[in-house]
Design a protein that fits this description.
There is one protein chain. This protein has an eight-stranded antiparallel beta barrel with strand order 1-2-3-4-5-6-7-8. The protein is mainly beta. About 5% of the residues lie in helices and about 60% in strands.
Length: about 180
């Protein structure tokens, strides 16, 4: 995806930047079966920033992130389960629209598509898969750019139910992402 965007930008003679980023992913899984509170994970990946207008750019990214959660002991919606700690690993593809409000500050908004990489994860003793393999989220945030470096703060809210069990409880991801990046090109 990043290579395709870079080639497209080159052919269209648009200014673009290619970079890498890493950071902390403070996340929680909403649902009555999970403990409240954010847990720390990580995110690492790359991005392409394509300028499409004077103050607007499109920034597709490819991120690998970790979501950690802990079940509530003997949750009513997950029978026969004691407290379980799980780490879910996602490949996320946010498509961010940047709006430059100051020379160094951009507001960010866009969708994010996530693919669960460890899709065999289960919280049941039977080993049945508990989490859906995909996730769709909305992203809002801000990014500060200084020379070739950037620092960002984002809020990611899951819009789809990731519960793959037969019960009716809805589980949704939420994250606060803190990241730093470096423009390679």
């Amino acid at each position: 995806t990043l290579l395709l965007c870079a080639i497209t930008a080159t052919q269209a003679q648009l200014p673009f930047k290619i970079g890498v980023k890493l950071g902390a992913n403070l996340n929680k899984l909403d649902g009555q079966s999970f403990k409240d509170g954010f847990k720390v994970g990580y995110l690492v990946g790359g991005f392409v920033d394509l300028k499409v207008a004077k103050s607007i750019s499109l920034q597709p990214e490819l991120l690998f992130s970790q979501t950690s959660t802990t079940t509530v002991p003997n949750a009513s919606s997950i029978p026969n389960v004691e407290q379980v700690k799980k780490s879910l690993h996602y490949m996320s593809i946010p498509i961010i629209v940047n709006y430059k409000i100051l020379p160094m500050l951009k507001l960010q908004v866009g969708p994010q598509f996530g693919v669960l990489l460890n899709s065999n994860e289960s919280i049941l003793q039977s080993g049945a898969r508990s989490f859906k393999s995909g996730d769709f989220s909305a992203v809002v945030g801000a990014q500060v750019n200084i020379l070739k470096f950037n620092a960002g703060l984002r809020y990611v809210i899951g819009l789809t139910d990731i519960n793959d069990l037969a019960n009716q409880e809805k589980w949704k991801n939420q994250s606060i992402q803190l990241s730093v990046g470096y423009n390679i090109l």
